[in-house]
Write a structure and sequence with these properties.
Pfam families: FAD-oxidase_C (PF02913), FAD_binding_4 (PF01565). One of its GO terms (cellular component) is mitochondrion. This is D-lactate dehydrogenase (cytochrome). The structure is a single chain. By secondary structure, this protein is of the alpha+beta class. The protein folds into three domains: 89-186, Uridine Diphospho-n-acetylenolpyruvylglucosamine Reductase, domain 2 (2-Layer Sandwich), CATH 3.30.43; 193-309, Uridine Diphospho-n-acetylenolpyruvylglucosamine Reductase, domain 3 (2-Layer Sandwich), CATH 3.30.465; 313-503, Vanillyl-alcohol Oxidase, Chain A, domain 3 (3-Layer(aba) Sandwich). It is built from 19 helices and 23 strands. The strands form five sheets. Strands 16, 17, 18, 19, 20, 21, 22 and 23 form an eight-stranded antiparallel sheet that branches. A hairpin with a 4-residue loop joins strand 9 and strand 10. The protein is globular. The N and C termini lie far apart (54 Å).
Length: 558
């Protein structure tokens, strides 16, 4: 099936997701099967996910997009273009990119680079985030190979020009902002599946491959990649942010599902972090060091992923509760029972209302738990009945379950598009999204206390939780041009983060740090941990060119 057709159906789900897809609609994504290999060897001729004959329209040769002189369009670094009261602006410094570097990038990338203002602006403003920066990238490059990435990074390091790696543009904490200008490295054209090893249940991919496209590719082989973050996320960005998703309760996070990486360091050197063996005790665990480093240590150019067999059978169940605490208590009790659920998702009544509005549904607008059970048919149904009994002991009602594939797919589709559904209630607002995670025993108290604050606020706030592993999101809708809204959204977010930290939790369970969560790291990790991170950063990136201003607070010194 053509990826362009698949994306066309998906983008109908919401205005926001449509905007994201429109940014990349100039490229037709067509899935092409790669050669399948066995244990003996990998395929030596990578096959493209994208048709090699197509280039983004933004990269078409024209006087505007590929001129080697900066455009005369207004720059976001001009003070007049920033309303500090209306926007969350990340400060930075800016220096003009040397003409010599522009010439070097042109020689490396040929037509796959742009100085076009619109394209630079789109790459400098995350599509799903309220975070903004005083500057945008000066140049956007689209490498096609690891060799090109190495040369680009080496040139930028030589000229001491900042680099910002760019994946699927789905991150929400300002990871891809360019507060200091510089070069944005868009990895979207590096989307090969390099090798599939069916008997080893692993696959080697380039960073621009999307997780949804990858799973469509793997389906004929009876395999899938078990992480499911937001639609549109790519494997490289998923590694960089150490993401997870609703299936993490069973399969773990990104750090548990990556076998090895290839990474271009700040000086252009290419490092392979591990072999393809499922386990190894050889040296420092460089793979885990890079996962979650958010582009501050290097640019990921290849990923070897652990795969899983597609479950033989699955059941999706839903149950309603009078309060979110009752729902959270059932999630905890289910995990303590020893049942190996693959998903446990909690939605409050406001989020269910948003789903009803966005999808024309009539689901009961009460706190709801969604479960998925997998295995054989008999085992899945047995688990369902056990959880139904647990739910009944905690005020659960209207326990229903689905076995039909289309019904199950539709239920999870509504859950995955929860953010877009919220915008159906306030189309012109933006969303501040919390991402706290606590030990499982603390989840019910955290959600209960947070819910009291959220319900008392004038802002529309919804609650979603990956309840099986203690990860909790609040989606706070606010008018970015309303100072009172902005302050109230910040207050609610601070409340939830500090409450989670008081419970030995974290400010971010899966979204990463970027610029938005840096202010909480000292309280969570301590200054010595941050100093250690800074030493690692300084050793690998002495010129501080790799995504500067992210992850590590600027006041940390050693």
């Amino acid at each position: 099936m053509a990826m362009s057709s698949w994306f066309s159906r998906l983008r109908c789900s919401s205005k926001c997701f449509f905007n994201f897809l429109a940014l990349r609609s100039s490229v037709s994504r067509k899935l092409v099967r790669t050669q399948t290999t066995t244990n003996s060897e990998s395929t030596k001729n990578p096959l493209l996910f994208w048709s090699s004959s197509l280039l983004p329209i933004a990269l078409a040769v024209s006087a505007g997009s590929l001129a080697l002189h900066p455009q005369s369009d207004p720059s976001l670094c001009e003070a007049s273009s920033i309303n500090s009261r209306a926007e969350f602006v990340v400060k930075g410094s800016h220096k003009e990119v040397p003409r010599e570097l522009i010439d070097e990038l042109k020689a490396i990338c040929q037509d796959n680079m742009t100085l076009d203002y619109e394209e630079r602006y789109n790459h400098g403003k995350p599509q799903n985030s309220f975070h903004k920066a005083v500057n945008i990238p000066d140049v956007v490059v689209f490498p096609r190979s690891e060799e090109q990435v190495s040369k680009i990074v080496n040139s930028c390091d030589k000229h001491k020009v900042p680099i910002v790696p760019y994946g699927g543009a789905t991150s929400i904490e300002g990871h891809t902002l360019s507060p200091n200008g510089g070069v944005c490295i868009d990895m979207s054209l590096m989307n090969h599946v390099k090798a599939l090893h069916v008997e080893d249940m692993d696959v080697v991919v380039e960073p621009g491959v999307g997780w949804m496209e990858l799973n469509e590719y793997l389906e004929p082989y009876g395999l899938f990649f078990p992480l499911d973050p937001g639609p549109g996320a790519t494997i490289g960005g998923m590694c960089a942010t150490r993401c997870s998703g609703s299936l993490a309760v069973r399969y773990g996070t990104m750090r548990d599902n990556v076998i090895s990486l290839k990474v271009v360091l700040a000086n252009g050197d290419v490092v392979k972090t591990a072999s393809r063996a499922r386990k190894s005790a050889a040296g420092y665990d460089l793979t885990r060091l890079v996962i979650g480093s958010e582009g501050t240590l290097g640019v990921i150019t290849e990923v070897t992923l652990r795969l899983q067999k597609i479950p033989q059978y699955s059941v999706v169940a839903m149950c309603n509760f009078p309060t979110v605490k009752d729902a959270a208590d059932v999630a905890i009790a289910t995990m303590l029972s020893g049942i190996q659920v693959s998903r446990v998702e909690l939605l409050d009544e406001v989020q269910v209302r948003a789903i009803n509005i966005a999808n024309g549904k009539s689901l009961p607008e009460t706190p709801t738990l969604m479960f998925e059970f997998i295995g054989t048919e008999a085992y899945s149904l047995e688990q369902t009945l056990i959880v139904q009994k647990i739910a009944s002991e905690h005020n659960g009602s209207d326990f229903i379950f689905a076995e039909d594939p289309e019904t199950k797919k539709e239920l999870w589709k509504m859950r995955k598009e929860a953010l877009w559904a919220c915008f159906a209630m306030e189309p012109n607002f933006e969303a501040m999204i919390s991402d706290v995670c606590v030990p499982l025993s603390c989840l019910a108290e955290l959600i209960s206390r947070s819910k009291q604050e959220l319900d008392a606020s004038e802002l529309i706030c919804t609650v979603i939780a990956h309840a099986g592993d203690g990860n909790f999101h609040a989606l706070i809708l606010f008018d970015p041009y309303n100072e009172e809204h902005r302050r109230e959204a910040q207050r609610l977010n601070h409340f939830m983060v500090h409450t989670a930290l008081s419970m030995e939790g974290t400010c971010t369970g899966e979204h990463g740090v970027g610029t938005g969560k840096m202010k909480y790291l000292e309280q969570e990790l301590g200054m010595e941990a941050l100093k250690t991170m800074k030493r690692i950063k300084a050793a690998l990136d002495p010129n501080n060119t790799m995504n500067p201003g992210k992850l590590i607070p600027s006041h940390v010194c050693f």
